[in-house]
Recover the amino acids of this structure.
């Protein structure tokens, strides 16, 4: 079986609409998710949620950990709960095959070697300000539409997912600078985006300016 065949099999698991709802809920959650919370979010029974969650684990889309949610330890504390979170890694299928990642890596290398960081940031800021997704005033909706998976951490809006993860890992200064500029252009004026990495997520976080 080729890598492409394996990816097709993996993504075919998401053909079930219940599994898609469960996967999206777990993937967007800032912390590990238990079966009860997942069942409630998907509007199904706990036993059905457990079945589908474990199918997503078998497919390699989710990973499992165990922890006592009560925080208690020792005798009488009960069994640890089975918790789920999105698995690391990316799974992309293109029909017919395309190689945009290779082109992106090549372009990033050229830009970095040429020292064109400022030019890239200016272009990214302008692209963000254009707001082609139509969410002119709702920054959460705009970020969600672009795949950032925003969530609130106190008064800070953090981003669970980095849409440019592969390139950011290889060219962090170039790509993170571009990403910050893009979000600066995207966010309305009352927001203040800064470089404040979320563990396992995006390098940018947003907060409201004090005068707002």
């Amino acid at each position: 079986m080729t890598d492409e065949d394996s990816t097709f099999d993996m993504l075919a698991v998401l053909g079930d609409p219940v599994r898609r709802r469960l996967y999206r809920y777990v993937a967007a959650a800032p912390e590990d998710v238990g079966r009860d919370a997942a069942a409630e979010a998907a509007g199904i029974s706990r036993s059905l949620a457990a079945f589908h969650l474990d199918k997503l684990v078998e497919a390699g889309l989710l990973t499992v950990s165990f922890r006592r949610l009560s925080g208690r330890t020792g005798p009488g504390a009960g069994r640890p709960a089975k918790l789920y979170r999105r698995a690391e890694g990316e799974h992309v299928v293109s029909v017919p095959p395309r190689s945009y990642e290779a082109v992106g890596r090549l372009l990033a290398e050229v830009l970095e070697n040429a020292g064109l960081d400022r030019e890239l940031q200016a272009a990214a800021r302008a692209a963000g300000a254009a707001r082609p997704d139509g969410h002119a005033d709702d920054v959460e909706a705009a970020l969600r539409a672009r795949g950032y998976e925003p969530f609130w951490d106190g008064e800070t809006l953090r981003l669970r997912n980095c849409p440019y993860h592969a390139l950011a890992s290889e060219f962090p200064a170039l790509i993170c600078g571009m990403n910050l500029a893009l979000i600066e252009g995207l966010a309305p004026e009352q927001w203040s985006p800064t470089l404040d990495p979320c563990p396992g997520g995006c390098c940018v976080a947003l907060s409201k300016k004090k005068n707002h």
About this structure: Strands lie at 33-34, 62-67, 81-86, 150-153, 156-159, 191-195, 204-208.
